[in-house]
């Protein structure tokens, strides 16, 4: 929070959206304030940036003003790309459940979703799998059969989701799907680069497996490598009863990346008008340092996002897992948000003894942001 935040411009809401899109496209972190009061009188929406980015941002702003029509087209196209969601599916019930969650979320965001499946190429399997001479002679036929069967399964799932959209009269949501050959994590990462979605939504098996494995190997590897948010939907979360998130819990460990994550979290939940609880769980009585750190976050949020509904506080408890679990239940939290900070993130933040209960017995989606300095 040592970096000073300044207002680059005050514009109408639409132009502020376009300018922020252009700034982000040029790698400049920015956010809008005064959105909730934009209709109450003169003024407008403030576009804020870090003072350190001022020179570069002013150049973008000058280009934006001097060629507004052309820049508007580019900005609008960029805004379309950030309204995209990738949903990896493997035809399990929890994967399809996540797809329905993505549809409901996309309805509010006016986003497009893309279902993708990666099927295993037999040529990439161990030689022991191919030791049969007759099997090797028919390998091309086997690959075609696998591809055809997988495509039919993907097409059928997409059909069910489109029927669901039609039945529920959901508007402004387009569904695409595609099939790829190869390793699931590599395929998803490649599609993130090509399709340029805002996030990935995945289903997890939850409490079917024990401890850390319950998060799922594909999901955990993707979280480690992806550069965009990943939203994990537990199998036991009933996506058919989905309601737009009204209460989001951000679990902070007082890392310097909290400020960047909170700005992105505000952007994510703004269409839902959701309340954010920024909470740090401390064992028993909170230490003075914890209180100072939380005051620091409150001050930052008040100075930069004073109009948004965010509540900060310390959760004093003798058992962190139980305390957070009770908080989620008492406040009826819809989504838990955290920041991935390092490679052993899940092991360090959620000890194995806590993972199963805290992440999956609460039955709420987990939104993981990648850390930014």
Brief summary of the model shown:
By secondary structure, the protein is of the alpha/beta class. The chain is 45% helix and 22% strand.
Describe this structure in words.
- By secondary structure, the protein is of the alpha/beta class.
- The chain folds into three domains: 76 residues, Alpha-Beta Plaits (2-Layer Sandwich), CATH 3.30.70; 151 residues, Rossmann fold; 128 residues, 3-Layer(aba) Sandwich (Rossmann fold).
- Helix content is 45%, strand content 22%.
- The chain is built from 13 helices and 13 strands.
- The strands form two sheets. Strands 6-5-4-7-8-13-12-9-10-11 form a ten-stranded mixed beta sheet, sandwiched between helices. The chain has a three-stranded antiparallel beta sheet with strand order 1-3-2.
- Helix 9 links the parallel strand 9 and strand 10.
- About 10% of the residues have low confidence.
